[in-house]
Specification:
heterodimer, A: 345 residues, mainly alpha, two-stranded antiparallel sheet, 16 helices, 72% helix, globular, B: 260 residues, alpha/beta, Rossmann fold, 4-stranded antiparallel beta sheet, 10 strands, 23% strand
């Protein structure tokens, strides 16, 4: 035994590798830890600034009802951003999908069928976006600015610019589905949690999700290994179209009225949620859980700024700041992992 | 044109009369190409001779111009695609490596052919453990040095190539295509790669081997195709040509565009 150890000590060994082992917990979850940290600090600041508001549970109930209105789109938009694309047309899809529901339901169609038609409309809008972007290879920012006007214009023509009341008497089931509070929990947040779980499984436990990451990271490599990048991107856009319609319905039922302008004011906070959530502008990395938590932070900024007695114009400034700062931070982290200098030169 | 005596049997893969045009550029013109079971075919040619285009056509990444035919195991296949080719047991180690650098090793290892459990969901646990096993068994990484969760961007060139080679090996391919696999590799890494090519033949499988360095290609191959400006300039059996003769001919081709 002792002799053995001696001989093994005597044999020259390869020098120990200086490379690191598995990535540490900190390194793997740094962006998620960051979001939670930012959220906590902000919450403390709001509690100090307006204690009587932020120790009252009503403000949290209000968050839980309104945040999912853009949060569910942020979760779906995360897929598109990970593939390296962007969708700016979802506010218009919210309106167009809901308009289809309203017109059909008013025309006497049963509400479940009208709902199916509304989601179908959202899916078709997403398919149009995805096909133009992925199949024809046009930059998604340009395509979706165009289709944003197209979908909005179509909706305004269909509605002739007027709205539709969505009262609880006329649409009891829709109100139960989208505006109730079972066990005191606002149903909007229950939906958001259900959608988060579904989206997490889709992104992390299906082939489609795996291909979303690969296509966003390096589309050529993905294609060389037999992944259909066009189909993956198109499906991601369809997901946004369906979720935008869901959000349009939820928002309209919440206000008891479908406004033809539905969706306006949703662009900035939804995109801010995705980027604050740690999803990279460069594609290839991102997290739906990050978008989920970031949505509530963005929702809190909105409510907190008002409750703290600060002029509401500051919310725009805050959203802008959130987008710019999170994109800059991601760039710096990205350069570090690629071992480049911080300015990329 | 010299013509080697073709091996007998049905080719694993065969291209008949394949041309490929990109806009104004004709990368391949009327190429006939076949790989038989158990042989290593070398592909030589200058830059721009069409080697990579030929490989990507075999792989289904490029579809041939109308008139070209792709035959697999004696059957003509019309809807040839990368996914189809990989399903039928053709794997490629590309010159550009075809890795996704921001992703962990396990995602790269199973890229495009992710294993699923009985629920239809991804078997991530299997992807992780298989990657760890493959890395220590085949790539010679000690498990402490490289972890399956490490992103590819943090690895060295040789380690990246190791991932690409191990990936091709894992799926137990009948035909492995190696497109310039030794570019940028160290001496030991190059030797490992050449041993790997020898191992393919021992296992009774086929390979297409492309390399600029004729000293790497000649010792491991059975037959050689010489490409020039998108055309097959010559096919040689290794027994009928020595390395010096081959080098002489290649110079000649580069100067005149023909072997004669």
């Amino acid at each position: 035994m002792t002799a053995k150890t001696k001989t093994s000590k005597a044999t020259p060994q390869k020098p120990k590798d200086n490379r690191v082992g598995p990535p540490s917990f900190w390194r793997r979850y740094v962006s998620q830890i960051g979001i939670v940290g930012v959220g906590l600090i902000m919450w403390l600041a709001f509690v100090i600034a307006a204690p009587e508001v932020f120790t009252n549970k009503n403000i949290y109930l209000a968050f839980a009802q309104t945040t999912p209105q853009f949060g569910i789109i942020a979760i779906a938009l995360t897929f598109v951003v990970i593939t390296g694309e962007m969708d700016l047309s979802f506010p218009s899809i919210m309106a167009l999908g809901t308009a289809v529901f309203c017109l059909l339901a008013q025309g006497g169609l049963a509400w479940p069928l009208a709902l199916v038609a509304a989601f179908g409309t959202g899916a078709i809008c997403g398919w149009i976006n995805g096909t133009l972007v992925a199949f024809l290879n046009i930059p998604s920012l340009v395509v979706t600015i165009g289709t944003s006007f197209l979908f909005r214009g179509l909706e305004l023509v269909m509605m002739d610019g007027s709205g539709v009341p969505l009262t609880a008497q006329d649409y009891p089931e829709m109100h139960a589905l989208l505006r109730s509070s079972p066990f005191g929990i606002p149903v909007q947040t229950i939906w958001m949690v259900v959608i988060l779980i579904g989206a997490w499984l889709l992104l992390n436990r299906t082939r489609f999700g795996a291909h979303v990451f690969l296509v966003g990271d390096n589309p050529t490599s993905a294609r060389l290994m037999g992944i259909n990048a066009v189909s993956v991107k198109t499906r991601a856009f369809i997901l946004v179209g369906i979720m935008a319609t869901f959000s349009g319905l939820m928002t309209s039922i919440y206000g008891f009225y479908f406004w033809p302008t539905t969706g306006e004011g949703f662009l900035l906070n939804t995109i801010a949620s995705v980027f604050l959530g740690g999803t990279s502008v460069f594609g290839g990395t991102g997290s739906v859980a990050g978008s989920f938590f970031a949505s509530y932070i963005i929702g809190a900024i909105n409510a907190g700024v008002v409750a703290a007695g600060i002029n509401a114009f500051y919310t725009q400034l805050a959203f802008g700041l959130v987008i710019v700062v999170s994109v800059v931070l991601q760039t710096l982290i990205d350069r570090r992992t690629k071992r480049q200098s911080l300015t990329g030169r | 044109m010299t013509k080697a005596t073709p091996p007998t049997g049905t080719p694993v893969i065969e291209l008949r009369n394949v041309s490929k045009t990109f806009g104004e550029v004709r990368s391949l013109s009327n190429v006939d190409f076949a790989v038989y079971p158990g042989e290593i075919v070398g592909l030589l040619g200058d830059n721009g001779a069409g080697k990579s285009t030929l490989v990507k056509t075999v792989m289904g990444f490029h579809s041939p111009d109308p008139g070209g035919e792709i035959w697999f195991g004696g059957n003509r296949i019309d809807d040839w695609s990368v996914a189809r080719a990989r399903d039928l047991g053709i794997e490629t180690i590309y010159q550009e490596r075809a890795l996704c650098e921001k992703q962990p090793i396990w995602r790269n290892m199973f890229m495009g052919r992710e294993p699923r459990s009985k629920w239809g969901l991804l078997d991530v646990a299997k992807m992780r453990s298989e990657s760890a096993r493959l890395m220590s068994d085949h790539m010679g990484f000690t498990s402490a040095a490289v972890h399956p969760d490490n992103v590819v961007a943090t690895m060295s060139g040789g380690e990246k190539q190791g991932v690409a080679i191990t990936r091709a090996l894992y799926f137990d391919a009948n035909l492995v295509i190696l497109d310039e696999p030794t570019v940028g590799l160290s001496l030991t890494e190059t030797k490992k790669t050449l041993d790997f090519v020898g191992g393919i033949k021992k296992a009774g499988k086929s390979a297409i081997f492309i390399d600029h360095n004729i000293f790497h290609v000649y010792p491991v191959v059975d037959r050689l195709y010489v490409l020039d400006r998108g055309k097959v300039a010559g096919i040689y059996d290794k027994s009928e040509i020595s390395m010096d003769e081959l080098i002489e001919r290649l110079y000649h081709v580069a100067r005149t565009g023909s072997l004669d």
